[in-house]
Amino acid sequence: MTAVLSRYARRKKLDHFFAGIDKDARVLEVGCADGWVGQYAVAGGWQRFTGIDAVAPPAAPPHPFVLGDVRQWPRLGLEPGSYDVVVAFDVIEHGDLFDAMAALLRPGGRLMVTTPVPHLDWACRLLECLGLAERRTSPRTHLIYLRDLPEEFRPVETSVRGGLSQWGVFERVPHPSDADGPAFQWAAAQAP
C-alpha cells in the first residue's frame, strides 16, 4: 500500500508533467516500479509509452516494457534519439543515468524528473520511517541538485515542491553532430 504523502505526490506529478506531453509523443519511463505512471499514461491516451526498469514489474504493464538497466540501452534494442520525452520520477538519485537518457532523447526532447532535495534527504528518510512516504527501493547514491544536471540538458522549468522534492523539465540540447554524433558514438563505445 502506498503511503498517504506518496499517493498525493504521485497525483500531483501526473497532473503537472503529463499536461505538457502531447498524446502522440514517444514517451520512455525510466524506473517503472509498480507501474503507476504507465497505467496513468495508457489510460489517459498516451499510446506510444514504453517503460524500462532493471526489476520486473509485479504485474504485466499495459504498455511495452523493457527489462534491463537503461545504461545498457544499446544491448536492449533501444535506438538513439528515439524518444520525445523521458520521464524519471524519483529515479536519478539512484544512479548516473544522464548519458543514457541524453542518448535516447531526440534533440529538443524533454526530460521530466523529480528527485529529493539533497540536503533534505534525511527528512525524506524520517517520513519513510513514520510510514507517511513510500520506502526507498535502493540506496540514494547520486543525490543531485537539478541546477547541476549535465550540460546536455537545458532547464525549461524547475521548482521545489513540499520543501523536499525537486521537479524539473529539461530540453535535450541539440548537438551539431547529432545525425551521427554523441548518441551513436556512445552506443558504439558500449557495444561488445
Automatic annotation (TrEMBL):
User: What general EC class does the enzyme of this chain belong to?
Assistant: transferase
Q: Which UniProt keywords apply?
A: Methyltransferase, S-adenosyl-L-methionine, Transferase
* Documented EC number(s): 2.1.1.222, 2.1.1.64
A Gene Ontology BP annotation from the UniProt entry: methylation
Is Cytoplasm a UniProt keyword of this protein? no
- Which SUPFAM superfamilies does this one have? S-adenosyl-L-methionine-dependent methyltransferases
Q: Does the keyword Isomerase apply?
A: no
So which domain of life are we looking at?
Bacteria
**Single GO term (MF):** 2-polyprenyl-6-hydroxyphenol methylase activity
Supply the InterPro entries for this chain.
Answer: SAM-dependent_MTases_sf (IPR029063)
Question: What Pfam families does the record point to?
Answer: Methyltransf_23
Q: What's the protein here called?
A: Class I SAM-dependent methyltransferase
